[in-house]
Specification:
It comes from Parazoarcus communis. This is DUF4194 domain-containing protein. The chain has 237 residues and is mainly α. The strands form two sheets. It has a three-stranded antiparallel beta sheet with strand order 1-3-2.
Length: 237
């Protein structure tokens, strides 16, 4: 077990994120002793495992008490410690809203992106779905047309902001589509953001641009679930 712990810790530090389907990641999610040892190793260097059962990846992040020692005693890092400008952060939140909120609604109701509209009486017993079956992409051209002028200009969004978000792992850009990156659902706090977006000003901005805001009642199911009631990971074969 020692070698596997060392291997997983090193890989997490090197790659920053790993898929939930990874063998050692799955062990950390289902083996309590292994997870406790992993948490101790990460905590020893001021880190913690970022794990969201609805996300397709896990990642590592700083413990809260390490923010100021690492990023400095001033509050300059409060807006972003990734070098993102205010416009780029706003773009990230918009993309998160348009990809993750509808995705979470599909995961909670156990529906796919392509759904026949028929109810499934056994849907609640299914494992939480991940990947392309529930996470839909956005048209890059439509996103820029709808929000580019508000976020520093269409050229800036297309040539700089989206590229930066892709390099950081928040999104992937493929054939004119913006897809969920490995960090989009695990690095941004759903419990903190969802209610503020659905009931806040951004919901009006999205609606004005013709984007449907997911039903708040459906999303509340995921938001209020205590940790013990979240869907279990599949055990290793």
């Amino acid at each position: 077990m020692e070698h596997e712990l060392q291997t997983l810790t090193a890989r997490l530090l090197n790659h920053r994120w790993l898929p939930r389907t990874d063998r050692l990641v799955r062990r950390a999610l289902v083996d309590e002793t292994f997870r406790l040892d992993l948490d101790r190793r990460l905590a020893a260097v001021g880190l913690r495992l970022l794990d969201n059962p609805y996300a397709a990846h896990v990642a590592v992040g700083l413990n809260a008490d390490m923010h100021e020692p690492v990023f400095g005693a001033t509050r300059e890092y409060a807006a972003s410690n990734l070098g993102l400008t205010r416009d780029e952060i706003a773009l990230l939140v918009i993309i998160w809203s348009l990809i993750v909120l509808p995705k979470r609604e599909r995961q909670v109701t156990r529906r796919d992106v392509i759904d026949d509209g028929q109810s499934d009486m056994f849907g609640g017993d299914k494992p939480v779905p991940h990947g392309d079956s529930v996470s839909a992409g956005l048209s890059e051209a439509s996103l820029i047309a709808d929000f580019g002028a508000r976020l520093g200009g269409k050229t800036k969004v297309r040539n700089f902001a989206l590229g930066k978000l892709a390099r950081l792992g928040f999104i992937e850009r493929r054939n004119g589509q913006i897809l969920e990156g490995p960090l989009l659902d695990v690095a941004l706090d759903y419990r903190l953001l969802a209610d503020r977006i659905i009931h806040g000003t951004l919901a009006d901005v999205l609606a004005e641009a013709g984007h449907e805001v997911p039903n708040a009642n459906a999303l509340d199911i995921a938001d209020v679930l205590p940790d013990d009631d979240l869907p279990d990971e599949d055990t290793e074969d």
